[in-house]
Automatic annotation (TrEMBL):
Domain Leucine-binding protein: 33-391
Name of the protein this chain belongs to: ABC transporter substrate-binding protein
The entry's keywords: Amino-acid transport, Signal, Transport
Gene3D superfamilies assigned to the protein according to its UniProt record, in alphabetical order: 3.40.50.2300
Domain of life per record: Bacteria
Signal peptide per UniProt: 1-28
Length: 411
């Protein structure tokens, strides 16, 4: 039998229930407006789903405590949560259950892993329900869909912008620009999208030589052969593109075993899983020191009050991309509902498409702007680079949210 915790994770969770008049049915203006969160609540990516849930619940709590949706007579928000599981097929099935069981949904946020988002958004698109996502894959918004909105830079955009920025960081720290790299990446859509500009030769003008390129299918059983290539070729830095903490742990431990860890070889990853608190517990600060990762969002300068409140409410040591992005997504839906004046998904989608914000919910995204192109990509998005320093993952780029200066590990 499932325990209370598992039931809470896998069942739909209601936050901010509708107010019911004593002795009679709830009035229409008191009925909660339903927003879905679909994310992995079980399997290897369950921790990321948990962090998304915490951010979403805090946003709902804040909205309802402030009086709900003003243009709808103060109606509260209700968050319904579905487990995407550990495969794209399970994620798609969960999405189908979600839209079937909750026909009044005005929007959805999720699904974390790009492969899952590709599957889930097929369902929400057919149902004409707007979906906001923090997933990176370029494929998500390359399909001509009208109801999918990608909040961060795509993986391809992140790679194009991140590699030159990281090379400049290295040059500023060491006086020399690296000329060699190596790639260890899983075969998920997010990792492939990030590595694509380098593999396709788009980075050739930077004079960057790829000395090895290894791909694996998660979950990883043994990292020996992968890291052996790094030891034998000795690139000046390595791209380590996984998507799950257990895989990251295996890779970092093997890197250390081969004498490359602890800052001896600069390691650059992609995705917020590399800043997850449990990675610190599993690996320890020494192996993580200097490791960098490119993410679509992170809590930093300007969000001090938010971070402190989140930590107090949840007991988490810091606020990751997963939490602040989901918090922001709920606030975007709140803004769209206020403008639409009705709890209708098509009207909400129209208001999201028309957004051009530099305040309000825009404060929860790097770049400080929300504006979508015809594909549903946020043209105001920027990337964030975080780095492990003294046991903490801190943003080092861009300057407007950075809380520490970058360091470039040396051998």
């Amino acid at each position: 039998m499932l325990g209370r915790r598992e039931l809470l994770k896998t069942a739909a969770i209601v936050v901010g229930a509708a107010v019911v008049a004593a002795g009679g049915p709830a009035l229409a203006q008191d009925q909660a407006v339903q927003i879905g969160l679909i994310a992995p609540m079980s399997g290897p990516w369950a921790r990321q789903g948990e962090l998304m849930r915490l951010g979403g619940e805090l946003a709902v709590k804040d909205i309802n405590a402030a009086g709900g949706i003003e243009s709808l007579g103060g109606r509260p928000i209700e968050l319904v949560i579905f487990d995407a599981g550990d495969s794209a097929e399970k994620a798609k099935n969960a999405a189908q259950r979600m839209v079937s069981q909750y026909p009044d949904l005005v929007g959805v946020t999720g699904a974390w892993l790009s492969s899952f988002t590709l599957a889930v958004s097929e369902v929400t698109e057919r149902a004409e329900i707007p979906m906001l996502t923090l997933s990176y894959s370029d494929q998500i918004t390359n399909r001509g869909f009208k109801y999918i909105f990608q909040m961060p830079m795509t993986g391809n955009e992140q790679a194009k912008n991140a590699i030159p920025a990281l090379l400049e960081v290295a040059k500023a720290a060491t006086g020399e620009q690296p000329t060699t790299t190596g790639i260890i990446a899983d075969n998920t859509a997010s990792s492939e999208s990030f590595a694509s500009p380098i593999r396709s030769g788009e980075m050739d003008e930077l004079g960057l030589q790829v000395k090895f390129d290894e791909t694996f299918t998660p979950p990883l059983a043994d990292a020996t052969a992968l890291v052996q290539r790094a030891r034998s070729t000795r690139p000046q830095f390595m791209l380590m593109l996984g998507t799950a903490v257990p895989d990251d742990k295996l890779l970092l431990e093997k890197v250390n075993e081969f004498g490359l860890g602890g800052g001896r070889m600069p390691i650059i990853s992609s995705g917020a899983h590399m800043g997850a608190p449990e990675l610190l517990k599993s690996v320890g600060p020494d192996l993580l020191e200097g490791v960098m990762t490119v993410v679509g969002n992170w809590a930093g300068k300007g969000s001090e009050e938010m971070i402190a409140r989140f930590k107090e409410v949840t007991g988490e040591p810091w606020m990751t991309q997963d939490s602040i992005a989901t918090y922001g997504d709920i606030m975007v839906f709140k803004e769209a509902l206020e403008r639409a004046g009705k709890a209708d998904p098509k009207a909400v989608a129209d208001e999201i498409r028309a957004m051009d914000l530099t305040d309000g919910p825009a404060q929860y995204y790097p770049g400080g702007e929300i504006k979508f192109d015809e594909r549903g990509r946020n043209t105001g998005a920027d990337l964030v680079i975080i780095q492990w320093q003294s046991g903490q993952p801190v943003p080092i780029y861009p300057d407007n949210i950075a809380v520490a200066k970058p360091i470039w590990p040396t051998k």
